[in-house]
Write a structure and sequence with these properties.
The structure is a single chain. This protein is mainly α and 88 residues long. The protein has one domain. 92% of the residues lie in helices and 0% in strands. It has 2 helices and no strands. α1 runs antiparallel to α2. The longest helix has 41 residues. The radius of gyration is 19 Å and the shape is elongated. The mean pLDDT is 91.
Length: 88
């Protein structure tokens, strides 16, 4: 019983990591590119680094939404199917 719960917790963290990874990587790459641009042009404006990163993260979230929804629905279905195994 405890092994199932631990496995469930590990799977939950894995799914959270998989779902957040595309947006985090897009924000990281955008931030790196913007930082290099700011360093080369010596423009030090906070909105120049913030607004493009937010827009890129939103675009990535929109494009990956079907995949994320599919993954969350499969996980939810597995969790609902596992309810009888946890009830005594």
């Amino acid at each position: 019983m405890e092994a199932k719960l631990i496995g469930l917790g590990v799977e939950t963290f894995k799914i959270a990591l998989y779902l957040s990874m595309p947006m985090l990587l897009a924000g990281l790459v955008a931030g790196l590119i913007i930082s290099i641009f700011q360093a080369t042009t010596q423009i030090n404006e906070m909105t120049l680094s913030f607004v493009p990163k937010i827009l890129i993260v939103i675009v990535v979230a929109i494009f990956t939404m079907p995949w994320m929804m599919n993954m969350m629905m499969e996980f939810t279905i597995r969790m609902i199917e596992m309810i009888p195994t946890f009830v005594f």
